[in-house]
Design a protein that fits this description.
Mean pLDDT: 83
Low-confidence stretches: 1-8
Helix content: 25-40%
Amino acid sequence: MDFRYNSYDFSNDVPPDMSIEQLLEQELGFQSEIMSASYDAKIDALKSKFETIKNALWQTHTDALAGNFKENQGQSIASKLAGKTGKELKKPFTRPVGRKAPPETICGRTIDPNLPYIRITCIASQKKAGECYIGKEWVVQPTFEKPCKVGRSRGIHFTNKGLSLSDDLEVSTTHSEFGVSKKTRKLYYKDTGSTNGSYIYTENEPLIQLAGGSELELVSGMTLLIGVCIYKIAVP
């Protein structure tokens, strides 16, 4: 009977004095050589594919620096790589077009003009105590996590990022806030449970009191009564 195992011929190549253990050890050596050669070939193929992808990325980067990159024109990075590797990328990506505007200083505060912000101007006061605020302007730039607080407090959260109305005795210590709605992503004003409340002010019309805790979506030109003063809102 002729027994063969891969490359080794048991019927013809077995020396008469070789033990079973020696035979198995010799065959294990043969199989190790075959597997090693197979691994080397796979590693070489992976190295070649890596170099192909790296060269494609580098060429795209060079083109972008030279000003030749055009969004949605020609072959995207994803299609270049797919053509060279034979596989499609799951999430094609493109280089952002244009640069972000640098920070600006408005009303004495540094803001990011690439993100929404609110400009607030005191235009009138119903009592003499609030006349010191008439004509004064503030700019606030809230985020989802950090609304800008309004109140009589002189804490840094009010003086640096919000509105500190310490001379208006009808404003609560923490009166309200300007923020960004997590649901609508729009700028809002919210009375946070102040003693005297907050109101939408329209000349020659009744005041509309805001419900505590409700978010009022802001639009340019609207006016709010906070304490004894009337503030005009601008959303650039």
